[in-house]
Amino acid sequence: STGRPKLIESAGDTRIPEAIGYPLGAQPGDTTLVPIPLSHNTGFTTATIALLMRHHLVVMSRFDPHQFLRLITDHRVTFLTTVPTIMQRTLPVYHADPASYDLSSLRRFWHMGAPCPPAIKQAWIDLLGPEVVWELYGGTELQALTFISGDQWLTHRGSVGVVVAGEMRVLDDDGNPCPPGVVGEIYMRPAPGSAPTYRYVGATAKSRDGWDSLGDLGHFDADGFLYLSDRRVDMFTVGGRNVYPAEIENALSAHPDVLSCLVVGVPDPNSGDLGQVPYALVHAADGSALDAAGVQEFLRERIAGYKVPPTPDFIEFVDAPLRDDAGKARRSAVRAEIIARLQAAAPR
């Protein structure tokens, strides 16, 4: 989702999905719902787990929040995996008519695939209970994984959990381990003695002394919990200060009228080629009175001023979700299109 697609060929045991099912809390007799496209690793692996464990499997051909809630209710779904964009799009539909849906059958509600805005995760914990909501981080490459339960998240808000398989470390630009609380690039590898889990076809992994990076930035805390900042390629600078789009998106996602949002860095018109400023795309609920000035005001109350789009011209409202059903956005393509429009509109 950040560049040219790459093929990842599994080099591990084809029974891995079934083996993963048990640590994820899947049980024989479960009813599993897959709302994510099977072309995405999360959807495919979840469906495979369900088939190998002989679950009743319900697959959505295309995500729709009303149907998602109806399928959980009608089939008494007990196990599902999802992504933050689905979580965000579903909440307003549920709260508009909660009496029409019954989510009490859910025993494991996993989300993964992208960082989840804390306000969205908190809303699902409040809805389902912390014992139901779990999160996984690791990537298609399956070298290492972190898990976090809802209870753990409430005491380590924003974390994606502790390492439960393989190994992870956070390194600075010189390859030195970062101390707790210091952001660096996340590297991972399988447990020592394990066979390789994948190989790229038509691409090359970023490696350092046997450790591979997926391009994510983050940090560990003193308790060993991992926190994601953003992808390295998405970070931009404002006045020499690093800005992570995910932080701005997380803040904006807390607004009750925002269904999805996307932030990119674009050239600062007041500094030539010397810096960038945030540009926000916002998908608001139908009938919302939210405008660009309201977005600026909402963000200024939650993040530093230099992380807020500088003028209303750098806030754009759209009428469709900004991520696909797998929770991915082609951020580089969106940024290029925005810059082209800004350049075309600039005075000659």
From TrEMBL:
Assigned keywords, A-Z: Ligase
Organism domain of life: Bacteria
Domain AMP-binding enzyme C-terminal: from-to ranges: 247-320
Pfam families: AMP-binding, AMP-binding_C
Keyword Coiled coil: no
SUPFAM superfamilies associated with the record: Acetyl-CoA synthetase-like
UniProt GO MF annotations: medium-chain fatty acid-CoA ligase activity
Swiss-Prot/TrEMBL GO biological process terms: fatty acid metabolic process
Keyword rRNA-binding: no
InterPro entries (alphabetical): AMP-bd_C, AMP-bd_C_sf, AMP-dep_synth/lig_dom, ANL_N_sf
Domain AMP-dependent synthetase/ligase per the UniProt entry, residue ranges: 1-196
Family statement drawn from the similarity comment of this UniProt entry: Belongs to the ATP-dependent AMP-binding enzyme family.
PANTHER family from the UniProt entry: ACYL-COA SYNTHETASE (PTHR43201), MEDIUM-CHAIN ACYL-COA LIGASE ACSF2, MITOCHONDRIAL (PTHR43201:SF5)
Protein name in UniProt: AMP-dependent synthetase
